[in-house]
Specification:
Strand order of the largest sheet of chain A: 1-3-2
Radius of gyration of chain A: 23 Å
Shape of chain A: globular
Distance between the termini of chain A: 72 Å
Largest interface: A-B, 37 and 38 residues
Oligomer: homodimer
Structural class of chain A: mainly alpha
Number of helices of chain A: 22
Largest sheet of chain A: 3 strands, mixed
Number of strands of chain A: 3
CATH topology of one domain in chain A: Neurolysin, domain 3
Order of helices and strands of chain A: HHHHHHHHHEEEHHHHHHHHHHHHH
CATH architecture of one domain in chain A: Orthogonal Bundle
Strand content of chain A: under 5%
Chain lengths: ~500, ~500
């Protein structure tokens, strides 16, 4: 290859990204369309393609061009956007390079197998079956942290691959703050004398009508259906082949429109970020999302701060009532809002409301950090889980299926991933507060259905920057403050104080 | 890599095949699901993946392991199935190797551009716009033939990549025979006093019901929907990721169920071949189809020899009438059969009946062979086309859009491909005759809906052999005779003699 070294690097990165995008097409098809018997062959094809991508990534500096570019950046000969590309590419390349090929293969084989065993163990409520795998995965992730290197805690090295630049110490501090607010706040809500009857939003609505309504909401948020699709799958997800081809999935329940709606709004939030990334930088870090936490902040901001807000439903509830008189016509707005936002401790994270959700995350975070730091033995995870669920959420965990075995993450080797879900909620509240400060009549506009207002704010302040800034820096730049939990707790206090008349009890 | 050299080769071939299969997933998604704006990124991703596959293929003998295996085969140290794998791999590798990398890239860039220009030229009925591209493609295909090498005609080298082992001379002889029968036979049919009114099968049937019926027919033929899917696309096609994941597409017209049915049966014929290839040999030539002609013989046998036969409809017509009283209840069986098999010269190949279809092919074959042998100047192609259509089919061609510009093949560089369509029809009739000879009550069984009888015969005699035999050898082995046109002409005489009462005129 010839040309300016930075241009050569960009072209290499694009080549790799197009192959990764091919890989994403296979993943999407697998979840959405693949016939049952196609599974084995697909696993082989996906593995083969992943190998190609991995090989190209680790070979990216074979001619030392990246190393030279990195030196140019250090010598300030290369600045601005190009420097970001080099720095970010170097960061992932360096991490990749530190891991021996044998280690990577072993981990990948282990987690592939562990996910099958986990699925079986969850089905049979048999933690003992999964334990040897969890033990081995924790060992290997500790080893990974050693290879990668860290300052304070081995957990730093793991968290860094999902939320670059955030230390375990800072994450802990934020989540501690959050917990110390949430636990008493939840008790306060639970003792409020407000009756909620979720059955009132349940009624059979044909699938085709549910799909149509979900698509309308998604389109109203600004999802470009010419640059994406919405389909069905067992677990909702968003996947991106390119900013011009972003796919979301939703799942449906025949008798519960709200079940699909929440997940559609959530996935559309992710998708707007992906469609909003600058196409001209596709393939380079400038065309990529900041971090998992920032990605989750987009989905959660739409799902909760907007999608469960009074303003949003002032506009959409009359439409919903008109479209689906059964069950909504006879249901008053205030009662609908209460059902939509009901706070109720439950066993399953993915079904949790926005008050209890973060407590689910904190349970996982404390356990996985403990295991990685050698302070919790994997064998004790179920017991610790039960204690913490009791302590933070006030509920008993009747089985490991509904407890420690419920999420796929650990079996897949994703230790360090969970906190990004909570970070997403904190960031979302912080973005939203900044947005409100800048656009004083924001909620009035939303109540008029002008969803382009928040969308364009997010596009300008978040999406278009790609990976130019780390999460903390971007938040600081846009909101004037580093990430903190206060915006989120203030948001909860205000919203749920009103919904549950918490003030009135005093 | 280590292990027995032949096993190492097989593993390499499988790796390449899984990547090619990934590539096929991208192609399928592109036709069936891709949103409009995703096209550019998809083109890049597909090109990137094709490059990877091509690079791996040309590198397959870098360590000379294939060369050594080839010598083992020549020295009869390696025999049987393993020898077939080596021979067939060598054949495609050698062809690939003879073409300089620059030439391959130039041709691929030329045809990518030519296909766009052709689409535009067809829309505008402007052959002049396409001519420079056609000229350049013909030049390059002549050059390709020189690189590859040939005995009698440069056309040999092109035909060989679609129908391995068949010479231009043998193909010409078969098609000449066919033409000398078809031209007068068509005149005879056209002068028959039989009235056909295709409007009688037209009526609006909701898409969902059409899809359901098409799927039932496909399932009755033996298409395994757990190892495949049926979807919609503009142009029907079959694509295979693995024998356990074969996908077909159909297109529909609201007022014409038969329009979709023919193409569903055709594609299911292809799909049964793909699902019937031995999975255990996936990736190696033993798990691949013999040739395009043999592939087409499977689709055409099902579409025409079975799917337009009296026996087939004795079973399915009552179902059709019951399911769709409008338009079929009042339409007598004999009249339905006549509409289904109406012979009517027309301009467009893909809509032609089974008598005129091969004349369309012969027109293309004679012109492309003439161009490749330097006997027809590409500039004269439209005029020659018009003359031949008049002479063979008796019709005037009013525009190049409906004439020489109608098919994508030449713009894509597929010269040598067309004859395989006609070969498919000849082979199909030859298989069917052998099947009838072996199973005397074949048509009775089909009339009882026992479609597993022809399917299992094809599976045993054709599908399971993979590429073990060349087309001519397989036909000889199974039918006792090399490929000839007589079975097909006899079949037409018998079937259309009856339908059009040709005997009674004499």
């Amino acid at each position: 290859m010839k040309g300016k070294p930075i241009e050569v690097l960009k072209e290499r990165l694009r080549e790799i990204s197009y192959l990764a995008s091919a890989s994403a097409v296979l993943g999407w098809d697998q979840e959405v369309h693949m016939p049952a018997k196609g599974a084995d062959a697909r696993a082989r094809a996906s593995a083969q393609l992943s190998n190609v991508v991995h090989d190209k990534l680790v070979a990216i500096d074979d001619d030392k061009a990246l190393t030279r570019l990195k030196k140019d950046v250090e010598a300030k000969k290369l600045r601005g956007k190009d420097a970001v590309i080099v720095e970010e590419t170097w960061r992932s390349f360096e991490r990749e390079k530190k891991l021996p090929a044998d280690f990577v293969r072993e981990l990948s084989e282990l987690t592939a197998k562990a996910q099958h065993v986990w699925a079986e163990a969850r089905k049979k409520d048999d933690f003992g079956m999964f334990l040897p795998y969890l033990r081995r995965i924790v060992e290997m992730k500790r080893k990974e942290a050693k290879y990668v290197g860290y300052k304070d805690s081995p957990y730093d090295a793991l968290l860094d691959s999902y939320e670059p630049g955030l230390s375990a110490k800072d994450a802990s501090a934020m989540l501690e703050d959050l917990k110390s607010f949430l636990v008493p706040f939840l008790k306060e809500i639970r003792s409020a004398k407000v009756k909620v009857d979720p059955k009132k939003t349940k009624a059979r609505i044909p699938l085709s009508e549910q799909i149509a309504f979900n698509k309308e909401i998604s389109a109203a948020m600004g999802f470009d259906f010419e640059a994406g699709r919405m389909d069905q799958s067992t677990h909702p997800f968003t996947t991106t082949f390119h900013p011009q081809d972003v796919r979301i999935t939703t799942r449906f329940r025949e008798d519960d429109l709200l079940y699909s709606l929440g997940s559609t709004i959530h996935e559309t939030g992710h998708a707007l970020y992906e469609q909003g990334l600058p196409s001209e930088h596709f393939g380079t870090p400038l065309g990529e999302a900041v971090s998992l936490g920032v990605h989750e902040s987009q989905s959660r901001l739409w799902e909760n701060n907007i999608g469960k807000s009074e303003a949003f439903w002032r506009h959409f509830y009359p439409k919903l009532q008109k479209r689906f008189p059964k069950p909504f016509k006879a249901l008053p707005f205030e009662e609908f809002m209460l059902i939509l936002n009901e706070v109720k401790p439950s066993l399953i994270r993915t079904e949790a409301d926005e008050v209890t959700y973060n407590l689910h995350i904190i349970v996982r975070f404390e356990i996985e950090k403990g295991m990685i730091e050698g302070k919790i033995d994997p064998e004790d995870a179920p017991a610790v889980w039960r204690e913490k669920m009791k302590e933070y959420l006030g509920i008993e965990v009747p089985s490991n299926t509904l407890g420690v075995l419920q999420d796929v993450h650990w079996s897949a080797g994703y230790l360090g991933y969970f906190p990004t879900y909570a970070l997403g909620n904190l960031y979302a509240a912080q973005w939203y507060a900044a947005m409100e400060a800048e656009i004083p009549d924001l909620n009035k506009k939303i109540a008029k259905g002008e969803l382009s207002v928040p969308r364009e704010w997010l596009r300008k302040n978040v999406h278009l920057h790609g990976k130019t800034y780390k999460a903390a820096d971007l938040l600081k730049k846009v909101t004037g403050e580093k990430p903190i939990s206060r915006y989120f707790t203030e948001y909860l206090k205000k919203k749920y104080g009103k919904l549950y008349s918490l003030g009135s009890k005093k």
